[in-house]
Amino acid sequence: MLVLLFNTIEDAISKLNIIKEQLLNLRERYGAIKEKLKINAEIEDKLTKLGFQPSHQVITVHAIPHTMNIHIAPHSTWLLSKLNVIDDNINYVVNEIEKINKYLNGIKGRDASVMVLIDYANKKTRLVIMP
Fold first, then answer.
1. What stretch or stretches form a coiled coil here (predicted)?
2. pTM of the model
């Protein structure tokens, strides 16, 4: 749940835009991590289909001139699903911030205090404008 309090409508608009930009930047970084995790998750899925019960294992490959250790950890699929949930929450908050900004830009009186409550878990948003 995200609860934000602002002194004025102008303050709310500017700070909500900053929060939105930071969330978009975060979503972009998570996107890069998710792409890397998708590859690992696909390998885990293939190993599971072959009958392996993936757990943390180290496979040692003896190659000339070096020995290479390959670590297989079954955490990528789980982590990928968690990142997808976080990505959905970020998208919800960004969309709600855009709706709130659009509404606040239409208000004529700019001296009112603003409270924004975004409950991304239950998908509910409240906007309170206090004179």
1. 9-36
2. 0.74
